[in-house]
Amino acid sequence: MSINLEIWPRVSLLNKANIILIGFMGSGKTSVSKALSALSGFTLIDTDQKIEELENTSITQLFNTRGEDYFRKLEESLCESLLVTKNSIVSTGGGMILSEKNQELLEKIGVIIYLEASVETIVFRIKNETKRPLFSQKTPLNSLSILLQKREPLYKKLADLTVSTNNKTVEEITQKIWDFYNSNSVDQKGRKALHHESNAN
């Protein structure tokens, strides 16, 4: 079923709908989303995990057997289903923002937080992991850096708040996001006028 996005207004931050975490692999979305869920009492939705449950296979296996295009279509379908979600922490896959449709959907679902991390921080965090379809221990640092540079403008364009996760604890990052979410400084329309960047100092 196709949804007419034009009749679905951009979420107002005053409505306290959902918190959406976007960012590159290794930026801390999984850890921070769990901490935010515990702090807020909101339901945790991990989009990659949800797709794995629906498809009964791993993301890596989906990439290998069905291809990235198929996976991105699954992301769009899942993202569309989240329009009716309330009081949730949504941790997204690193490439979910590549789709223009997903960009529109995410802006209507909740408050978007970009977890920013340097390529050095990312490599340090994921260097021993084996379940990431776009990364292996043999992936050149330059290739990872190019992919991050390609996606970063999209992350920043969508974000209502950008938080650096370099040399920060999960607790520091989580509290910064939660304070912003509960802040009285947002405007009544909840538009991009409130776009703000923070190094989580």
Describe the structure.
Strands 2-3-1-4-5-6 form a six-stranded parallel β-sheet, sandwiched between helices. The model is unreliable at 1-15, 133-137 and 184-196 (pLDDT under 50). Helix 1 (29-40) crosses helix 8 (170-181) and helix 2 (47-55) packs across helix 4. The protein has one domain (5-198): P-loop containing nucleotide triphosphate hydrolases (Rossmann fold), CATH 3.40.50.300. By secondary structure, the chain is of the alpha/beta class. It is built from eight helices and six strands; from the N terminus they run E-H-E-H-H-H-E-H-E-H-H-E-H-E. Helix 8 links the parallel strand 5 and strand 6. The chain is 45% helix and 12% strand.
Content of β-strand: 5-15%
Task: Describe the main β-sheet briefly.
Answer: 6 strands, parallel
Instruction: Specify Rg, calculated over alpha carbons.
Output: 16 Å
- Give the overall form: globular
CATH architecture, by name, is 3-Layer(aba) Sandwich
Tell me the series of helices and strands, N- to C-terminal: EHEHHHEHEHHEHE
Low-confidence stretches: 1-15, 133-137, 184-196
Q: For the record, what CATH class applies?
A: Alpha Beta
Which keywords apply here?
single chain, 201 residues, alpha/beta, Rossmann fold, six-stranded parallel β-sheet, 8 helices, 12% strand, disordered N terminus
List the helices and strands and how they pair.
Blueprint: E1 19-22, H1 29-40, E2 43-46, H2 47-55, H3 59-65, H4 68-81, E3 88-91, H5 100-109, E4 111-116, H6 119-126, H7 141-158, E5 161-164, H8 170-181, E6 196-198
Parallel strand pairs: 1-3, 1-4, 2-3, 4-5, 5-6
Helix pairs in contact: 1-8, 2-4, 4-5
